[in-house]
Structure formats: C-alpha cells, structure tokens
C-alpha cells in the first residue's frame, strides 16, 4: 500500500478516535465526523483518479452531498439540544435511561 | 253537447280572474270579497250545466288541449278528464266554497288582510279543481302540491302564533311523506307503462304488481290523514275556521281518497291492496274516534270526526266500492262544512272561546246554530233519511254482507257507535245544561252573511243525500236483500252510542274524577302517538347521524386512523425496545477498543 494511502488512512483513524473519545462537547464529535468524511473523500478521489476508474467518478461527489446533509442534520440536533440544556455537553443526553 | 266543453272550461277560467286582478288597485278595496264570492257562485251555476248533461246522457268527456312537450316517448299534454267523479264533485266543491266564502266575510271581518285570505282560498279552490279534473298524473301532481302549499299558507294565517307555525310545518312534513309514495308510483308508471295519462295506464296494466298501488296508498295516507300519518289534521285546526271548514273537512283531505278512487280499475284486481286499504281504514277510523272522545276543543273533536270518516272512506275503498266512497265524499262535505261553520259561529259569539268545558246553554241563545249543529250531528251519525244515511248506511250494509275481514268490520262498527258518542258530547257540552261562559257576552246571530251559508248547507245536509243518490247514474248493482239484523246494524250501534253517551253525561255531569285512568290518558294524549313519534324518532336519527358523521368519520377515520396511530406505535416501540442508559462516552470507547482489537488480532493470517 502506498504512502499516500497510509497517510490518509491514518487521518481517518485519528478522526475516528477523536469521534469515539471526545471529552464533553458534542460539537467535537461532529467535527471529527466531518474529518472522517473529508478523509474518505480524499482517499476515494485519489484512488479513482490514479486507477482511471471512470465509471466511479461520481461516487466522491455523491458522498460529499450526503455528508453535507448529514452535517446539517447533526447541527440541527445540536441546536435542539443546546436549546434545551443551554450547553452541548454529552452527559446531558441521558433521558433514555430506564 | 257543445256546451259541455265550453262550460267546463268557463268554470275553470272564471275562477282565475280574481287572482289575476290581484295586482291591480281593485285588490285593495273591500269590494274584492264580494267579487270573489260572486265569481264562485257563478262558477257553481256554470258547473251545474255539465253535471246535468252528464246525468242526462251518461257520456264522459276528455278535453285534451295543449301539447306541452314530448320527452323522447313521453307525451305531456294539458288534459282534463270530465267523467263521473270530476263532474259530480265540481258543483259540490263550488257550492261549499261559495258558502264558506260568504261565511268568512262575516268571520274574518275585522282582519286587515282579508283580501289576501280570499285570494288564498280561491287559489286553493283552483288547485283542487285541477287535481280533480286531471287526466294525467303530472297535472294531478300539480294540483296535489298546490293544495298542500295553500294548506300551509292558510294554516299559518296567524303566523305570529308559534303553534300555528308548528302545525303548518307538521302538515307539510306529513304530506311530504305521502308524496314519496306518489312519486314512486309516478316513476313506476313511467317506467312500465311509458305514460302518465290515466287512459293508457288503465289499458296497459290490468293486473299491476303491488308496488305502484302501495305508493298510491301511501300518498293517500299522507294527504288523507290515515293512521301513522294522521297527527297533522288535528293540529291544522290552528287555522281560521273557514280554512278548517274548506280544507280540512270537505276538500283537501279527500284528495288522497279521490286519487285512490281514480285508480279503481287497478285496485279492483289486486286483493292485497284492498285488504291493506281495508285494514288501514278500519284502524284509522277506530283510533281517531277513540281520540275524539276526550278532546276539549270543539274544533279538534270535529277534526277527529273528519279523520274517522276518512278512515271509513278508505275502508269502503277496501271493499271495492269506489262509487259508494265518492258518494260519501260528496255527502260528508255538506254536513262537515256545516258543523265547522256552526262551531265558528259559536266560537266568535263566545269571544273566541274554543273549549267546550266553558260553553253551555246555547240552546236558547243561538237557536239557529243549535238547529244546524244538531242536524249536522245527526247527519254525521247516519240518522235515517238525512244526508249521511244514504252513504254511511250503505257502506255499513255493504261491509256486513261482503266477504271481508271480520276484524275490520268490527272496528268500523265500534267507530260508528263512537261517532254517536262524541256527537252527543258536542251537543251536550255546547248546547245543553247551564252556561259556563262569562255572563257579559255579546251574542247574536242576526247577520245574514252568517245565517245564509249555514241555511244553504243545512238544506244540503238534509236533502243532498236524497238528491245525489237518486241522480247519480248507478255504476254497480246495489245490494237488495240481507237479513234484518244486518240491515239494522248501523242504526242499532248508533242508537246505542247516543243512549250510552247521554246517560253517562247526565249522570256524571256534577262529578269530578280525582285520578285520570289510563284509558282517559290514552285518549286525551292522542294515543301517545305524537309524544313518541315527534320526539323519539328525530332524536334517534340525529344521534345516529352525529355518531356517524362526527365520531366515526371525522374523529376516527380522518384523525386517529393513520396519523395518531403511527405516532403512538413509534412511541411505544421505542420505549419498549431501547434499554440504554445514555452513557455515550462509554459506548464510543468500547466501540473504539473493539475496532482496535479486531484490527490488531485478525490482521495476521495465522
């Protein structure tokens, strides 16, 4: 596997770790989610362009569109939580406990 | 022969003229009443010409004037049928209307809208004559609806009174239910015999199925106040007395019976319809006679008497005797109108008192009215050789000696004796004994506009039966022989009724009953029929419709079925299936450790 691939995969792994191990703010989880999406996009684009896989030229763009929608939804949920609690601390999301 | 058509059409046209001048100045002065009355008189005299010609030659005539329209294969014309029934009925109706118009010139003297009253009476008369002379069902329906509308307008003459408005609406509603039957038979005839004209109907359907005749019977039950559709007739006494005398005793309420008489070639072949008419008529006559026994309003007693006689007419139709029924219509008109006019005279003279418990002792005070009332009651009960005898006694004789339903016969005989009982009640309470009204009453009967109509109808009540039954061409063989006890049945039960009523009235006139027994309550409350039917069935229907429309459609199907159910299911499912504690960081951390471990451990193929 080439160096570029490893680079981007490490970027992906760092974002994933950041998503799963955030401290208190939900915002940081959303930012890391964006980072994961971005690294996936770069990886896909580079691979497809270097292997001249023309049929899959659309895929990164579609991925980007869906990522944008998902970011919007995530931000809307963040705003809703922030409206209710005043902050976006993750420890506030405990209504489902039985 | 040439005078036949022209005099008939002249009669009808003469009556339209006063209606047409009502938009001019002539309508505003009080010569108008005399004008209308004189026109009716002239129309009566003109209509005697075709009647006499018919009696002389026994030739019928059909006038078919004007072809209005042809809708594919249905041809509608303006056609008048001058046969036995319409030619005999027209002079009778015109004579009675003339007398009533003269009477109402006295009765409604102080009414500011008296000209409009006369106009309404005249329009009613015109529509009644249209009904009687119609040759096709469309024209008959025009007349039918016309008399219904005029009845509404005339019953609610004093429309400031809520009872009058309620009564007028009640009349319209009950008549409408009968109209459903009429429209049903019109549709059936159109569908099966391709016409609405009577000649073709009689030719093409000799043995019709029961459905159209059932529709016609329903129409007659609605218009002629048979049992089940009867409460409008006593309520219609809210109108002025001339209206009660004209519409609801002689002319309009016989329209239903007249319709069935017109269709006698169809009913004489259908045994089921005859039995149904017989039973309905017998039930009506007994039920309304029972209700008449304890009423306290003089007009209501006479109204129930009318209803009872209508039931008797329906019974006669059920015995397959249309011509006898027609004779009873003509004779009944005379004495019933006279009874109403006498009651109008009593009411006006006692300063608008209608309760018989507050009348009495008018025997010496109003001699002429007393005479007329007593003769009218005798004619009603069928005293031998007065008017009522010629039709009523013949009906009872035919009923007792025909192969018929014994139950219906028994009911009819009981109702006949009850006729005598309530007639005695009227005579006893209004005329005899001591006066029960306030002493300072201005009682007189000197006005010729009051006396002359009653006098004319009195002569009619005495002699018309004789004259009519001897002038009418016979249409079927009369019954000549029967056992003596059957012949005397009607007379016996009537005498029994008179004697019984008089005895009871005399013995109990100073007694008072502390508790009302159940039978008296049944009779006074009209058999509980209005109480139940006017409240219960609308309440049930409205509740059902509210449940269907609001609760079922709106609330259930529109709101709850999809939207709210979906939300509810989602909510329940999510609370059931999720058992999280909200420890997100722990979950994320365990996910990370699992991923790392799996990537490390399963990366080396060993």
TrEMBL record, chain A:
Main location: mitochondrion
Protein's cellular compartments: Mitochondrion inner membrane
Superkingdom, natural source: Eukaryota
One Gene Ontology term from the biological process aspect of the record: ATP synthesis coupled electron transport
Protein topology in the membrane: Multi-pass membrane protein
Pfam families: Oxidored_q2
Membrane-traversing stretches: 6-22, 29-49, 61-81
Known EC number: 7.1.1.2
Catalysed conversion reaction: a ubiquinone + NADH + 5 H(+)(in) = a ubiquinol + NAD(+) + 4 H(+)(out)
InterPro entries listed in its UniProt record: NADH_UbQ_OxRdtase_chain4L/K (IPR001133), NUOK/Mnh_C1-like (IPR039428)
Assigned GO CC terms: mitochondrial inner membrane; respiratory chain complex I
Gene3D superfamilies linked to this entry: 1.10.287.3510
Signal peptide range in chain numbering: none
This protein's UniProt keywords: Electron transport, Membrane, Mitochondrion, Mitochondrion inner membrane, NAD, Respiratory chain, Translocase, Transmembrane, Transmembrane helix, Transport, Ubiquinone
GO MF annotations, alphabetized: NADH dehydrogenase (ubiquinone) activity; oxidoreductase activity, acting on NAD(P)H
Protein family (similarity comment): Belongs to the complex I subunit 4L family.
Role noted for this protein: Core subunit of the mitochondrial membrane respiratory chain NADH dehydrogenase (Complex I) which catalyzes electron transfer from NADH through the respiratory chain, using ubiquinone as an electron acceptor. Part of the enzyme membrane arm which is embedded in the lipid bilayer and involved in proton translocation.
Subunit structure, interactors included: Core subunit of respiratory chain NADH dehydrogenase (Complex I) which is composed of 45 different subunits.
Protein name as it appears in the record: NADH-ubiquinone oxidoreductase chain 4L
TrEMBL record, chain B:
Principal cellular location given in the protein's record: mitochondrion
Bilayer topology term: Multi-pass membrane protein
Catalysed reactions, as listed in the record: a ubiquinone + NADH + 5 H(+)(in) = a ubiquinol + NAD(+) + 4 H(+)(out)
Domain of life assignment: Eukaryota
Domain NADH dehydrogenase subunit 5 C-terminal: 422-602
UniProt-annotated location(s): Mitochondrion inner membrane
One Pfam family linked to the record: NADH5_C
Record-listed E.C. numbers: 7.1.1.2
Entry keywords, A to Z: Electron transport, Membrane, Mitochondrion, Mitochondrion inner membrane, NAD, Respiratory chain, Translocase, Transmembrane, Transmembrane helix, Transport, Ubiquinone
Cellular compartments per GO CC: mitochondrial inner membrane
GO molecular function: NADH dehydrogenase (ubiquinone) activity; NADH dehydrogenase activity
InterPro entries reported for this sequence: NADH_DH_su5_C, NADHpl_OxRdtase_5_subgr, ND/Mrp_TM, NU5C-like, Proton_antipo_N
GO biological process: ATP synthesis coupled electron transport; electron transport coupled proton transport
Transmembrane segments: 6-27, 39-57, 84-105, 117-134, 140-160, 172-191, 211-233, 245-264, 276-294, 301-319, 325-350, 362-386, 406-432, 453-472, 484-502, 586-604
Domain NADH-Ubiquinone oxidoreductase (complex I) chain 5 N-terminal stretches: 68-118
Ranges of residues in domain NADH:quinone oxidoreductase/Mrp antiporter transmembrane: 134-416
Top enzyme category: translocase
Function in brief: Core subunit of the mitochondrial membrane respiratory chain NADH dehydrogenase (Complex I) which catalyzes electron transfer from NADH through the respiratory chain, using ubiquinone as an electron acceptor. Essential for the catalytic activity and assembly of complex I.
Classification via NCBIfam families: NDH_I_L
Classification via PANTHER family: NADH-UBIQUINONE OXIDOREDUCTASE CHAIN 5
Family according to the record: Belongs to the complex I subunit 5 family.
Name of the protein in question: NADH-ubiquinone oxidoreductase chain 5
């Amino acid at each position: 596997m080439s160096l570029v691939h490893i680079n981007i995969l490490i970027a992906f792994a760092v974002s994933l770790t950041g998503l799963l191990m955030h401290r208190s703010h939900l915002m940081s989880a959303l930012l890391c989610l964006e980072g994961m999406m971005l690294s996936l996009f770069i990886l896909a684009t580079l691979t497809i362009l270097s292997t001249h896989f023309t049929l899959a030229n659309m895929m990164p763009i579609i991925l980007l569109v869906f990522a944008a929608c998902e970011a919007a939804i995530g931000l809307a949920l963040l705003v809703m939580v922030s409206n209710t609690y005043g902050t976006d601390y993750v420890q506030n999301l405990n209504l489902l406990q039985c | 022969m040439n005078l036949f058509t022209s005099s008939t059409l002249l009669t009808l046209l003469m009556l339209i003229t006063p209606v047409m001048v009502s938009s001019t100045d002539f309508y505003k002065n009080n010569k108008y009443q005399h004008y209308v009355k004189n026109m009716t008189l002239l129309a009566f005299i003109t209509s005697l010409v075709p009647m006499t010609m018919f009696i002389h030659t026994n030739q019928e005539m059909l006038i078919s004037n004007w072809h209005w329209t042809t809708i594919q294969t249905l041809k509608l014309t303006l056609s008048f049928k001058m046969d036995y029934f319409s030619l005999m009925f027209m002079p009778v109706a015109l004579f009675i209307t003339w007398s009533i118009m003269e009477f109402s010139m006295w009765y409604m003297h102080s009414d500011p809208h008296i000209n409009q009253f006369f106009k309404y009476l005249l329009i009613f008369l015109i529509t009644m004559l249209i009904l009687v002379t119609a040759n096709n069902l469309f024209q008959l329906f025009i007349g039918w609806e016309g008399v219904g509308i005029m009845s509404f307008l005339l019953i609610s003459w004093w429309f400031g009174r809520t009872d009058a408005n309620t009564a007028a609406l009640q009349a319209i509603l009950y008549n409408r239910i009968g109209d459903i039957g009429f429209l049903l038979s019109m549709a059936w005839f159109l569908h099966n015999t391709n016409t609405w004209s009577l000649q073709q109907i009689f030719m093409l359907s000799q043995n019709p199925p029961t459905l159209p005749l059932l529709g016609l019977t329903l129409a007659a039950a609605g218009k002629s106040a048979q049992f089940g559709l009867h409460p409008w007739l006593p309520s219609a006494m809210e109108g002025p007395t001339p209206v009660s005398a004209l519409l609801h005793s002689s002319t309009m309420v016989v329209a239903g019976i007249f319709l069935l008489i017109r269709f006698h070639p169809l009913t004489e072949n259908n045994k089921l319809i005859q039995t149904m008419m017989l039973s309905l008529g017998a039930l009506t006559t007994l039920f309304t006679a029972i209700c008449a026994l304890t009423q306290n309003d003089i007009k209501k007693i006479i109204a129930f008497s009318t209803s009872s006689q209508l039931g008797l007419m329906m019974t006669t139709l059920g015995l397959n005797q249309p011509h006898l029924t027609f004779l009873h219509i003509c004779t009944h008109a005379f004495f019933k109108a006279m009874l109403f006019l006498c009651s109008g005279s009593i009411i006006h003279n006692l300063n608008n008192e209608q309760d018989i418990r507050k009348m009495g002792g008018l025997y010496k005070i109003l001699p002429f009215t007393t005479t007329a009332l007593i003769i009218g009651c005798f004619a009603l009960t069928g005293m031998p050789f007065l008017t009522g005898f010629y039709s009523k006694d013949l009906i009872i004789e035919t009923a007792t000696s025909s192969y018929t339903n014994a139950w219906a016969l028994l009911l009819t005989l009981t109702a006949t004796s009850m006729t005598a009982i309530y007639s005695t009640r009227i005579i006893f309470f209004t005329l005899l004994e001591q006066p029960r009204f306030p002493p300072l009453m201005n009682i007189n009967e000197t006005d010729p506009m009051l006396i002359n109509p009653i006098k004319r109808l009195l002569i009619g009540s005495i002699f018309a039966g004789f004259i009519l039954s001897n002038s009418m061409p016979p249409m079927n063989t009369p019954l000549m022989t029967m056992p003596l006890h059957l012949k005397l049945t009607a007379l016996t039960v009537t005498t029994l009724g008179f004697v019984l009523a008089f005895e009871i009235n005399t013995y109990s006139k100073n007694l008072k009953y502390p508790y009302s027994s159940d039978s008296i309550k049944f009779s006074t409350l009209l058999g509980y029929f209005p109480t139940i039917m006017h409240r219960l069935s609308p309440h049930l229907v409205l509740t059902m419709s509210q449940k269907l429309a609001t609760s079922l459609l709106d609330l259930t199907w529109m709101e709850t079925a999809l939207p709210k159910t979906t939300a509810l299911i989602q909510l329940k499912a999510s609370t059931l299936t999720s058992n999280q504690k909200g420890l997100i960081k722990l979950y994320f951390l365990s996910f990370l450790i699992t991923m790392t471990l799996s990537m490390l451990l399963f990366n080396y193929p060993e």
